[in-house]
Amino acid sequence: MTPVAVMVGANRIVPAAGIIHPLGNAELSAEDEKTLRRRIVAKALQALRTEVAQPTVFGGDEHPTAIHDAGERAGT
Amino acid sequence: MQTLRVVCYLNQFFGQLGGEDKAGVGPQVTPGAVGAARAVQQALGEAGTVVATVVCGDNYIAEHPDTAVAELLQLVAAQRPDLVVTGPAFLAGRYGVACGALCAGVQAQLKVPAVTGMHAENPGVEMYRRQVYIVQTGPEATRMLDEVRRLVSLGLKLARREPLGSPAVEGYFPRGLTHNTIADHNAAQRATAMLLAKLAGQRIVSEVPLPDFPQVPAPPPLKELQHATIALVTDGGFVPRGNPDRIEALAATRYGAYSIQGQRQLDPGQYDNVHRGYDTTYVKQDPHRLLPVDVARELEQQGTIGKLHETVYSTTGVATTLAHSARMGREIAAQLRAAGVDAVILTST
Predict the structure, then answer these.
(1) What is the pTM of this model?
(2) Is residue B108 part of a domain?
């Protein structure tokens, strides 16, 4: 969904762990999920402290999203 | 072809009664073509006769919104027109609104075709273009006869119930209507042709107009986090059990504001999800996968952030119109601002 965010002009964009659980991952243990969530939120806070001039994606950590894409329907 | 009976509507200026000093003049009718209506007669030629010109002051209509149009419709109806031509109003706002309102009334109540014209920035365009055929004109009456010709040309087609071309061809503002037509080539052929043209560096015209997203300047970054109030928002369809605010499952027009005051985390039993655009199983199991209240609370307790705002906001972001999205965003932002929130983490699905 990050390309959509860029297109519509959101300025600070943090890629999350997939559409069906942006701030989690059902495949992980509760503990690991929480760690993942902390990491993404930390990245969001970092983005809020960063000067941007245009839509900027604060990537870097690749989350395993491919296997979960089957859960989304078209049209978001 | 029979000669059509045409009634024109003009304001006090184009009806030659006077300028702003006469803007309070009430509805009146004169037989034949008066003032700018003579341009309409000229454009009509043999095809029609301007049997009467109805004139009214711009201020009169603006100050009597409920009754003025009804009075004008009576005057118009008495002339038994086959077509009503109002304006053109160019950039004159009160006039453009009056022209649009009268055309809408003529169509709806007298069941007579009507046409008007004005400049793209006339407020009458946004108010009436979906109901009324509004021909696009320049800002002033410099090329009045040319523009009146286009108005009359469209008006004649409407009066004769002839098929109309697209807005681009006929020169009127798109009315937001979709018509099915049969194309010579199927979509795959047209798409391929468009792609080949694009690769060859040719100019292509998209069949579907692409929405224009305005550039929103990025707010300056937070200087620090320890004193910052952070709010959580989502478009993932998060709602309390029972969806008390009746947030729609798609094409949402409503959002909800929900208190998390004193809560260290979200109890899944208290919440639900209405979003129809993705599989909500996982976010229903654990709403923190949408609104990271647990983690944000930790950060607040650790002093990493100053405060987690006590209200979370939610709506459904599938098939939500740009207009409603922007409106809801503005309304939520205003509430957040009033509450002293410094920044938002918006989780989007």
Answers:
(1) 0.58
(2) yes
